[in-house]
């Protein structure tokens, strides 16, 4: 069951990323301007989305777990925790902040639901139900928390120099710095709550298994 679940998660995540990538190459827009930029810039912006980064981390971890359900190691621990926490935030932020802004259909609708709902559900259920545990330690926690902070800093620098932001709630020109600051603080607090929450659950699940 563990191998099958991780294999399903990997297949869905890779398929969702591939579908969205195909839409980007084709010039389809979701939260971008109607007149898309050149392909190179579209691809650069594609990988700049936190949604895509978190789905990639989940996909890589799921592929590794499909091959070896008991996989371990410092790099894997950081990868798995960052992917799981990141995809959890992706699902929550999409549901509360982005979903009301989107009017999608066809392939764009399917990609949106897969990336923001189906993959998060598969990843979180898989983490709790199939582990492996224990896999959360100090280095993994530090890397997991540093990633979104670095992503936010780079995103705001890019926004200041190019006027492009991946998500409208980070557009300080439209929303103002106060709004962006509140949203950024709220998301940071969300990470700060989820990471120790997953660490606590990891220990409890390990104790239960023993």
Radius of gyration using CA atoms only: 17 Å
The largest β sheet comes out as: none
The portion of residues assigned to helices is over 70%
- What count of domains describes the coordinates? 1
Question: Could you provide a short overview of the structure?
Answer:
This protein is mostly helical and 210 residues long. It has one domain.
Plain-language structure description:
The protein has 210 residues and is mainly alpha-helical. It has one domain. It contains 8 helices and no strands. The protein has helices spanning 2-26, 39-48, 50-67, 74-98, 106-130, 138-162, 172-175, 177-209. The radius of gyration is 17 Å and the shape is globular.
């Amino acid at each position: 069951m563990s191998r099958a679940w991780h294999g399903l998660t990997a297949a869905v995540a890779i398929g969702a990323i591939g579908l969205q990538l195909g839409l980007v190459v084709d010039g389809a827009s979701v939260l971008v301007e109607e007149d898309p930029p050149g392909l190179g810039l579209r691809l650069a912006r594609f990988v700049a989305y936190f949604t895509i980064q978190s789905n990639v981390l989940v996909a890589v971890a799921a592929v590794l777990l499909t091959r070896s359900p008991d996989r371990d190691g410092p790099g894997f621990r950081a990868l798995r925790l960052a992917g799981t926490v990141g995809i959890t935030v992706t699902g929550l932020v999409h549901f509360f902040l982005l979903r009301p802004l989107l009017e999608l259909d066809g392939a764009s609708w399917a990609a949106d639901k897969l990336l923001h709902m189906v993959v998060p559900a598969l990843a979180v259920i898989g983490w709790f139900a199939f582990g492996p545990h224990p896999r959360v330690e100090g280095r993994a926690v530090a890397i997991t928390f540093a990633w979104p902070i670095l992503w936010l800093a780079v995103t705001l620098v890019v926004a200041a120099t190019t006027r492009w932001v991946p998500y409208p709630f980070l557009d300080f020109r439209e929303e103002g710095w106060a709004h962006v600051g509140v949203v950024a603080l709220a998301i940071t607090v969300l990470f700060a709550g989820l990471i120790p929450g997953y660490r606590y659950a990891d220990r409890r699940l390990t104790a239960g298994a023993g």
